[in-house]
Structure formats: C-alpha cells, structure tokens
Amino acid sequence: MATEGTFERMWREMAHGALLEGFSAYVELEARATEIRVYETGVVPGLLQTPAYARALAEGSVRRGVIDEEQAAARVAVLMERQGHLARPRPPTMLVVLDESCIRRPVGSPEVMANQLAYLTQFAEAPNTLLQIAPFSMAERRPFDLPLYLLTMADRSMVAYAESQFQGHLDRELSFALSVLSAYHQLQAESLSQAESVAAINQARKGIS
C-alpha cells in the first residue's frame, strides 16, 4: 500500500484533466464508508477492475491524447490504492449494479476481458457483496442514465457522487441522497438476481474469442 506521501504525489500526477471535479473528495470518503452502492455503464467500475483491465483503459486514454503515460500509470496506481481500502478488517458492504454494456463491451485483449469477467464472479461470492446486472431489456424502466455512487458513512450520513464523461458532482444533501437511494432500490428490483447475473457474466465470458 502506498505511503501518504506517495498517495499525494499520485494525485498531483493525475491533475490537468485526469480527475473529474469532486472525485478526490469522493475517494477520501469512499475509504471510510460502511456501505458502497454503485451503478456503472459501459465499463466495469474501478473498484472491481483487474489491474490488466485498468491498464487497458488507461492506455486507451493515452492513445486518445487525454492523458500521458505518467498520468496513466498514476491512474492505475490510485485505483489499486482505492481497492486496497476494501480489504480492511471490516470491509464495507458493496452493492453493485452493472449495466449489461459493462460485460458486453470488449476492453483489452480477449484474455484481459475473460479474466475481468471471471473476477466479477469471484467478487459476487464474497459475503459482503451483491452484484446484479441491469439487462438491456430494462429499456426506459432504468432510473439512471449515468454512473452513480452512493456512500453510507459510519454515522449513517449519506453522500452521492454522479458523473458524466467530463464532469463529476459530489452531493452531501440528505434529501438528494435519499431520493437517489429510492431510485437505486427500484434499479435493483428491476435488475437480474445475483444468481442470474453471474450466469449472464459466465455466458458473456464463454462468448469471448
């Protein structure tokens, strides 16, 4: 695990377009949250990414000219640091809903994608996790169109973080967080069960060539 000085250096290296507004504050809260709810579209969320999958995404950003090689390495290192907080003695409860696009969109080589899907099934086996897939068939019943993160802290306060491609927003207002939580419950009710979701992930993995 990185030292505090190294972690601060990582953040500096990821500046100038590599971080969305509000994200650094979110990460600090995420490390202390007792419950983490996630909804993600398009790609597997960072907390569930394998190192190879994360590197493939970062390298794609380098090729597009969004970040440089040094920032890409820092991005992956910070992501691994975030994941390290989940391994604390009392890990947070994690409830994750992935849009079906997350398991259908190829990232990296077939081996990278297959290993990432295998990791998702391992994640679902942990006693403190719940993983669901929101199938394409949900259509207009899907309550969210953009990625969303909802944290519950030890004092039961809640923090919501939502982002688009170019902007992030951190909201500590309880009324907003509760409205997000209500919509998240609707999302879970419409999504596949965990058993059905794991079956869908395994099916997607078999289709990789």
Provide an overview of this structure.
With 209 residues, this protein is an alpha/beta fold. Strands 3-2-1-4-5-6 form a six-stranded mixed beta sheet, with helices on both faces. The longest helix has 17 residues, at 69-85. The protein is 47% helix and 16% strand. It has helices spanning 4-13, 23-30, 51-63, 69-85, 101-104, 110-125, 174-190, 194-206; strands at 35-40, 93-99, 129-134, 148-152, 158-163, 168-171. The chain contains eight helices and six strands. It has one domain (4-206): Endonuclease, Chain A. The chain is globular, with a radius of gyration of 17 Å.
Shape: globular
Strand portion: 15-25%
Determine the fraction of residues in helical runs and give it as a percent range: 40-55%
Taking all residues together, what is the mean pLDDT? 88
Q: What would you call the quaternary organization? A: single chain
Biggest sheet features: 6 strands, mixed
Query: Regions with pLDDT < 50 over 5+ consecutive residues?
Result: 1-18
Number of domains: 1
* Count of helix runs: 8
Total strand segments:
6
- For the largest beta sheet, what order do the strands appear in spatially? 3-2-1-4-5-6
Through-space gap between termini: 35 Å
CATH class value: Alpha Beta
| Order of helical and strand elements | HHEHHEHHEEEEHH
What is the second-level CATH architecture?
Answer: 2-Layer Sandwich
Structural class: alpha/beta
Radius of gyration from the CA trace?
A: 17 Å
CATH fold naming: Endonuclease, Chain A
